[in-house]
Amino acid sequence: MDKHQWESRLCHISGRVGFVIIVALIILPSVWLRDLSILSYVSATGFLAYVVVIGSVLWTGANDGYNEKGRTLNLSRIATAFSLYTFCYSAHPVFPTLYTSMRDKSKFNKVLLLCYAVCTAGYTSMAILGYLMYGEHVNTQVTLNLPV
């Protein structure tokens, strides 16, 4: 078999797909854990990613400018916006596990309020930044509009 035939048989994986596969292989063993307190580290990395994405969008807007215009209310895309917000607030199945793993269960309501406040602030800031940067041309995920 010559070199060309060998290369045509290889599977080519792009950088983005390769990254997703690697992250999945790293996170996958967490579903088999007996002690769920270790998942707090996975959660912390998720929060770090959340901060990095908001920072990236803010940085891109600061460098490229907030100069797009468009309609403030586009009723034809309201279903997409509603489904995105619904998905973002769908973490309620984890609440019983969170409650049972807390040392001081009396602080559960405060933790819940803080989590929803932080998430709402992040979602709202991303929506505002995305609209200011890309106007009507913003994708459902503003990160898809960012330069490579």
TrEMBL record:
**Where along the sequence do coiled-coil regions lie?**
none
Q: Which InterPro entries match?
A: AA_transpt_TM
Keywords for the protein's UniProt record, in alphabetical order: Amino-acid transport, Membrane, Transmembrane, Transmembrane helix, Transport
Annotated signal sequence is none
Q: Among the entry's GO cellular component annotations, what is one?
A: vacuolar membrane
Write one Gene Ontology MF term. L-amino acid transmembrane transporter activity
Membrane topology is:
Multi-pass membrane protein
Q: Output the superkingdom of the source species.
A: Eukaryota
Q: The Amino acid transporter transmembrane domain covers which part of the protein?
A: 11-147
Pfam families from the xrefs?
Answer: Aa_trans (PF01490)
Q: Where in the cell is it found?
A: Membrane
Q: Indicate yes or no for the key word Membrane.
A: yes
Tell me where the transmembrane regions lie: 13-31, 38-58, 78-99, 111-134
Q: Which PANTHER family does its entry note? A: AMINO ACID TRANSPORTER, AMINO ACID TRANSPORTER TRANSMEMBRANE DOMAIN-CONTAINING PROTEIN
Name of the protein this chain belongs to: Amino acid transporter transmembrane domain-containing protein
Species annotation: Aquilegia coerulea (Rocky mountain columbine)
Lineage at the top is:
Eukaryota, Viridiplantae, Streptophyta, Embryophyta, Tracheophyta
